[in-house]
Write a structure and sequence with these properties.
By secondary structure, chain A is mainly α. In chain A, 84% of the residues lie in helices and 0% in strands. Chain B has two domains: 101 residues, RNA polymerase sigma factor, region 2, helix turn helix motif (Rna Polymerase Sigma Factor, Chain: A); 91 residues, Arc Repressor Mutant, subunit A (Orthogonal Bundle), CATH 1.10.10. Classes of the chains: A mainly alpha, B mainly alpha.
């Protein structure tokens, strides 16, 4: 590839201000001697300047408000999900503690026999109730938000 | 060669304090940052997807993603490039789904004096032709041109936004400008503006 062809490929990047100092010097030296490349560089530079000055399309006047409202709704939904998850964990822990407190009474009455049945009969319904409570709270919060 | 300092020194950018407040999900900070970037981001999206309705939706989607992912933002990186990278990803997803939009690469005039009415009209027409020819370029070319000339981003920043190697970005900018020059020359000759 000749110097002319090599430099020719660098003209657009020179016009865009994207060449390093060494390549920029090579381009400048070449266009000083080559009228064809000098013309091309002038045209590309004019085009680059015009691109910088292109009128910007105007955003719809309500875009900002709609964006803020959509982001706020999304953040509130995410906060609601986090809140529901925390609530479910707290309700589960409470149910577990409540189930444990019945163990003493059960042991006193039965002598501890059939502990597996006690575990199933107390823990599973307690956890189901805790889950239901969490779902109910989450639904209520959603309803409150939609009303507000 | 474009005078970068002269063109881009007044580009609004987010303050570190705003970003910190954004991380704490401060709605006032979000409103401030969205307003600050409104025109730049909307312009980028319009250049990329061309349709106002699509740009509108992508603008909102971009800020939703910013609000969701702000915890992952590394403050050592520029907020601008992070924001535009999120917008780029959303736009690319949309363009991939759209039929008829190719993601393949294809194809300062200083006035010494006040322009007269005819020159002003011609300049205005040239701008309209340039905008129209730019819109006709493929998406990767439109994108690098707007990021370089309207956003004033450096090669490295454009590469970060588009997730493309530096050599690819260089080649895209060069080819996009050359293609635009050829098309503009042909149009000027046709419209007798030269």
């Amino acid at each position: 590839m000749t110097t002319h062809e090599t430099i020719r490929q660098l003209l657009a990047l020179s016009a865009a201000g994207l060449l390093d100092a060494a390549d920029e010097r090579r381009v400048r030296q070449h266009v000083h001697e080559c009228s064809e490349c000098a013309t091309a560089l002038d045209e590309l530079a004019a085009l680059s300047a015009d691109l910088c000055r292109l009128p910007a399309p105007s955003a719809p006047p309500d875009l900002l408000a709609r964006t803020e409202a959509r982001v706020a709704a999304d953040l509130a939904a995410q906060a609601g999900l986090r809140h529901s998850a925390l609530l479910a964990v707290a309700a589960g822990l409470f149910a577990w503690m409540a189930a444990l407190t019945t163990w003493g009474l059960y042991r006193f009455l039965t002598g501890g026999a059939g502990w597996l049945a006690w575990l199933v009969l107390t823990t599973v319904p307690a956890y189901m109730a805790a889950g239901a409570v969490a779902v109910m709270f989450a639904s209520r919060r959603r309803l409150e938000r939609s009303v507000l | 060669m474009i005078d970068q300092a002269a063109h881009f020194e007044d580009v609004p950018v987010a303050e570190p304090d705003e970003i910190a407040r954004l991380r704490r999900r401060d709605s006032a900070a979000l409103a401030s940052v969205v307003a600050r970037y409104q025109h730049r981001l909307y312009r980028y999206l319009r250049r990329l997807v061309r349709e106002p309705a699509a740009a509108d939706d992508l603008f909102q989607q971009t800020w939703l993603n910013v609000a969701r992912q702000i915890g992952r933002y590394d403050s050592r990186r520029g907020f601008d490039t992070w924001l535009f990278a999120i917008a780029h990803n959303a736009a690319m997803d949309l363009l991939r789904r759209k039929t008829g939009e190719s993601l393949e690469e294809s194809g300062r005039a200083l006035a010494a004096a006040e322009p007269d009415a005819l020159s002003a009209a011609m300049a205005s027409e040239r701008t309209a032709i340039l905008a129209s020819e730019m819109a006709g370029l493929s998406a990767p070319y439109r994108e690098v041109l707007t990021l370089r000339f309207e956003e004033g981003m450096k090669l490295e920043e454009i590469a970060e936004v588009t997730r493309a190697p530096l050599s690819t970005v260089k080649s895209r900018v060069g080819r996009a400008l050359e293609t635009l020059r050829e098309q503009m020359t042909a149009r000027y000759r046709k419209e007798d503006l030269l």
